[in-house]
């Protein structure tokens, strides 16, 4: 006779390997973290020759996504970081000639960030590096598996809103 606290057969709701069980969810979370770290390492390795960090790349992409030069506060909000973090990233990108600060025509207190031609060229190189990093990660998957994975990742990303503690 089974002990009352023993898990049920595989696939049953009590089984440690059933979907949604703490063991399965913990294993999935660990796999996602490992995959994220691996992707970050690959991307960092491919960004190194371009002399840009992943955070700078993210900021550069964000600046380029605006129709008009964004304010520093807009960037901080979009990236969900404190304004000081944006200042540090803009400093580095400005020093490399990829962005420039520009005065706001309507307010002397506001600074806008414009992408330069050098920044646009860097983005083109970075997009290639990013595709290469993704290809390296996704090599074991078929086209159909990649499509399924894309749908699953979209469901996770677009799912429940983040809870801020």
Q: How does the overall form come out from the CA principal axes? A: globular
N to C succession of SSEs: HHHHEEHH
Number of strands: 2
Number of H/I helices: 6
Uncertain runs are: 1-16
Class based on secondary structure composition and strand pairing: mainly alpha
Strand order of the largest sheet: 1-2
What characterizes the major β-sheet?
2 strands, antiparallel
Q: Note the beta-strand portion.
A: 5-15%
Mean pLDDT equals 84
| Radius of gyration of CA atoms, rounded to a whole number | 22 Å
The end-to-end span amounts to 45 Å
- Amount of helix: 55-70%
Any key phrases for this structure?
mainly alpha; 165 residues; 2 strands
Would you give an account of this structure?
- By secondary structure, this protein is mainly alpha-helical.
- It has helices at 22-47, 54-65, 72-79, 83-95, 117-138, 143-158; strands spanning 99-103, 111-115.
- The chain has a two-stranded antiparallel sheet.
- A hairpin with a 7-residue loop joins strand 1 and strand 2.
- The chain is globular, with a radius of gyration of 22 Å.
- The model is unreliable at 1-16 (pLDDT under 50).
Task: Break the fold down into its secondary structure elements and pairings.
Layout: H1 22-47, H2 54-65, H3 72-79, H4 83-95, E1 99-103, E2 111-115, H5 117-138, H6 143-158
Antiparallel strand pairs: 1-2
Helix pairs in contact: 1-5, 2-4, 2-5, 3-4
Short description:
The chain is mainly alpha-helical and 165 residues long. The protein has helices at 22-47, 54-65, 72-79, 83-95, 117-138, 143-158, and strands at residues 99-103, 111-115. A two-stranded antiparallel sheet has the order 1-2.
């Amino acid at each position: 006779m089974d002990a009352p606290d023993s898990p049920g057969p595989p696939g049953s709701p009590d089984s440690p390997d059933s979907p949604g069980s703490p063991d399965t969810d913990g294993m999935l979370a660990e796999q996602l973290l490992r995959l994220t770290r691996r992707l970050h390492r690959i991307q960092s390795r491919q960004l190194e020759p371009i002399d840009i960090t992943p955070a700078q790349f993210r900021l550069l992409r964000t600046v380029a996504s605006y129709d008009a030069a964004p304010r520093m506060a807009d960037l901080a909000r979009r990236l969900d970081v404190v304004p000081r973090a944006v200042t540090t990233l803009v400093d580095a990108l400005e020093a490399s000639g990829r962005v420039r600060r520009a005065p706001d025509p309507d307010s002397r207190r506001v600074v806008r960030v414009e992408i330069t031609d050098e920044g646009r060229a860097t983005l083109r190189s970075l997009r290639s590096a990013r595709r290469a990093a993704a290809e390296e990660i996704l090599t074991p998957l078929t086209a159909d598996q990649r499509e399924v994975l894309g749908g699953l990742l979209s469901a996770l990303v677009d799912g429940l809103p983040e809870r801020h503690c």
